[in-house]
Write a structure and sequence with these properties.
Number of helices: 24
Shape: flat
Helix content: 40-55%
Length: about 700
């Protein structure tokens, strides 16, 4: 690789666009010339030209890529200081091109230079929605709000430097721990003025360690060597763990032991089967108390960790409503585990979940342990509890999104308690995509399933158009540098081999096309999201003259915009969503057999979509909501009043479906004995398997 004699430019903050353009003209006068650069280390760059491809050594060592990156940085510096940031620069250059149809030599050259600075492959048009696990994680990460360090953690750089000085030159664990403890003391004082919510946010944050480490780096100044960096990381890790423990009041000792205050808890065993997100364990305390600890199934899964963090925060918020509701499982605290994952502490519900209680009640009636009438009082008692718990959430602007009998537990005293709040969100209307990953289809209302299907059809149409738009854009880009194209007069600016090589270089050619692609994408996304904004003026940009499948590129884009403009209404009411799920749960509680059975969820979903249009009622004589192995089945609770309530909760029309509050006021919950201490005593006796006859006499006397 030979550097061209005299073809160089010292780029500083004062370099003008004209100087940059003049240099590009000069460098382009040599056949095969490419732009390269060198970072001078003082905020300036030397931009120069070479007359052929990089040497093999340069490619292997990475110097070629670095010199190309330095050239881009130099050009960006000029644009940033003359026009503003790169986005403004791009707008400015394109405005000039638009003004004269691209015939200005200066505008054309600046467009080329701007294209040269864009790194990475073009993003292209909006893609079809995918539903892979990886894409959901990417979407989840993209939607997370930017994290803001919760503290101005240490008062000054001098204070940080003083605290860190002892550990910068030693690996002594004693010194490291002493320094960490001093920092925790400083931070603990700083947290006193924070609200409980802010302190909880900080203790649970996965970025707490990074926040502390960033401030340590700021305080030290300069670049620490690898050994010093390792010590700083160890201090930050220790400080984050200790600070979180102090705020939460808990500490993991080892896999089987943790402390909460002065009480030491030891693992007794696993409770039930692992759930979708976590596994629950029973722990006994040194003071005789017991708690349940739920831990992540995959400790290094960031999506699960964020779900646990959300559940703790939402459960804490619900716990604080009016001092707690007996129909909500009590939160006992949280633990930041040694590996950075989270654990949730809750009160023990020794009666298991309501799904198990349901089976127990049907078995007790078969064995004539209790009467059908007594069983219905106990079912209504449990139903009243979980409806009351859900109403507490709805009254305070929250929705559950994952209600089912497996997520309601029964205490030793026979009290039903709503639990599992990892999916809780604000109670408002949401697009159907917000619900796509929530449980089995029959817990989702039919209007949501229908909206989901409509959206998939819409996405398919948009995806098909996008492929055709991408094809038109490729043709348009090829036309950019062809004779008669937008830059067809490029031969009049500089020698053709140099300039065309600059544009059509393996990387530059792709990124040059991205300039136009990004402009188009931005305009289409405005329409896709808000159905407003200004579309590209095709009279000014004659780039879509090529035909694609019998249509011009412009017609293809117009077809896409028309499709986007007719996007189906896929908003789903949050309260109606929860009401349906509660109705399904209550239906399961009162019917012995399964409500839906089929090998494929898609068949159940299709049945519910059809029932939404053709169904008459969900429960009772002539009902056709149930679905077994491809056949419609009739469902009946055997209680006319219960049937009426179920049909209100499972109304196919979300506009007339009963709300949770309306359900709680239903007359079935005011029947004698429902929710009474005597009913709970009998439920408790059945769970324990003792004192049943005495409890039955008590309930009969109350009736």
């Amino acid at each position: 690789m030979a550097r061209i004699e005299g073809a160089s430019l010292n780029v500083t903050a004062q370099t003008t666009l004209q100087e940059l353009k003049d240099f590009a003209d000069t460098a382009g006068g040599v056949d095969g010339a490419k732009l390269r650069g060198t970072d001078n280390g003082d905020g300036t760059y030397t931009l120069y030209a070479v007359d052929n491809d990089s040497s093999l050594f340069s490619r292997i060592s990475g110097k070629s890529r670095q010199r190309r990156d330095d050239a881009r940085a130099a050009i960006n510096l000029v644009f940033a200081n003359n026009v503003g940031d790169s986005k403004l620069a791009l707008q400015d250059v394109n405005a000039r091109v638009n003004h004269d149809g691209g015939r200005s030599p200066k505008a054309a050259m600046l467009q080329q230079l701007m294209a040269f600075t864009q790194s990475g492959r073009p993003e292209g048009m909006p893609e079809r929605r995918t539903d892979t696990y990886e894409s959901r994680i990417e979407q989840h990460e993209a939607q997370k709000p930017p994290h803001v360090a919760p503290l101005g953690i240490l008062q000054s750089r001098d204070q940080i430097a003083d605290l860190m000085r002892p550990v910068m030159d030693t690996d002594s664990m004693t010194t490291l721990m002493d320094t960490a403890n001093q920092m925790v003391g400083v931070l603990r004082l700083r947290t006193e003025a924070m609200t409980p919510e802010a302190k909880l946010d900080m203790a649970l944050s996965s970025q707490l360690k990074d926040d502390i480490l960033d401030q340590l780096k700021m305080g030290i100044g300069g670049a620490p060597d690898p050994a010093q960096m390792r010590r700083m990381d160890a201090v930050a890790d220790t400080v984050a763990g200790k600070l979180a423990d102090q705020i939460l009041g808990t500490h993991q000792v080892d896999q089987n032991t943790f402390t909460k205050g002065d009480v030491v808890y030891t693992r007794e065993g696993q409770l039930g089967n692992p759930g979708a997100f976590g596994t629950a364990y029973l722990y006994s305390g040194s003071d005789g108390s017991q708690v349940v600890l739920k831990v992540q199934n995959e400790r290094d899964n960031t999506l699960l960790r964020d779900t646990f963090e959300s559940e703790i925060k939402q459960h804490s918020q619900i716990e604080g409503i009016r001092g707690g509701n007996p129909s909500i499982l009590k939160l006992e605290g949280a633990i930041r585990m040694g590996d950075g994952s989270l654990g949730i502490l809750s009160k023990v519900a020794s009666g298991g979940d309501v799904s198990g209680a349901r089976a127990m009640l049907f078995e007790a009636v078969k064995n004539e342990t209790i009467t059908p009438e007594q069983a219905n009082i106990l079912r209504l008692t449990l139903a009243r509890d979980f409806v009351d718990g859900m109403k507490t959430m709805h009254d305070n602007g929250l929705m559950h999104r994952d209600f089912k009998l497996l997520n309601v537990f029964v205490s030793e005293s026979g009290q039903g308690k709503v639990a599992d709040f990892g999916t809780v969100r604000e109670n408002t209307d949401y697009d159907t995509t917000f619900f796509q990953d929530i449980d089995a289809p029959h817990f989702r209302p039919p209007e949501q399933l229908r909206a989901q299907r409509d959206l998939k059809l819409f996405d398919t149409q948009v995806g098909t158009y996008n492929e055709r738009v991408a094809s038109a854009m490729t043709d348009a880009f090829n036309d950019l540098v062809a004779p008669g194209g937008l830059f067809g007069d490029i031969n009049d600016i500089v020698a053709p081999p140099a300039t065309l090589q600059m544009i059509l270089d393996s990387e530059v050619g792709e990124t040059f096309g991205s300039v136009f692609a990004d402009m188009t994408r931005a305009n289409l996304e405005k329409l896709y999201e808000g159905k407003g904004g200004q579309v590209i003026d095709f009279d000014v940009h004659p780039l879509f003259d090529r035909t694609v499948g019998g249509e011009t590129g412009a017609e293809v884009v117009e077809g896409l915009l028309s499709t986007i403009d007719n996007r189906p209404d896929t908003m789903v009411g949050a309260q109606q969503y929860d009401s349906w799920a509660v109705g399904i749960g209550m239906l399961e509680l009162f019917t012995e057999g399964p409500v839906f059975t089929h090998k494929w969820n898609s068949h159940i979903q299709r049945h519910l979509e059809n029932w939404m249009v053709t169904g008459t009622q969900a429960v009772g004589p002539g009902s056709n909501l149930g679905f077994h192995d491809g056949n419609t089945v009739e469902l009946d609770s055997g209680d006319e009043g219960v049937n009426t309530l179920l049909n209100r909760l499972l109304d196919p029309d979300p506009e007339t479906r009963a709300s949770i509050g309306e359900a709680l006021n239903d007359t079935v919950f005011n029947r004698p004995g429902v929710g009474s201490p005597e009913a709970r005593n009998l439920l408790s006796a059945l769970i324990k398997g003792e004192g049943i006859e005495e409890a039955k006499l008590g309930l009969n006397a109350a009736l």
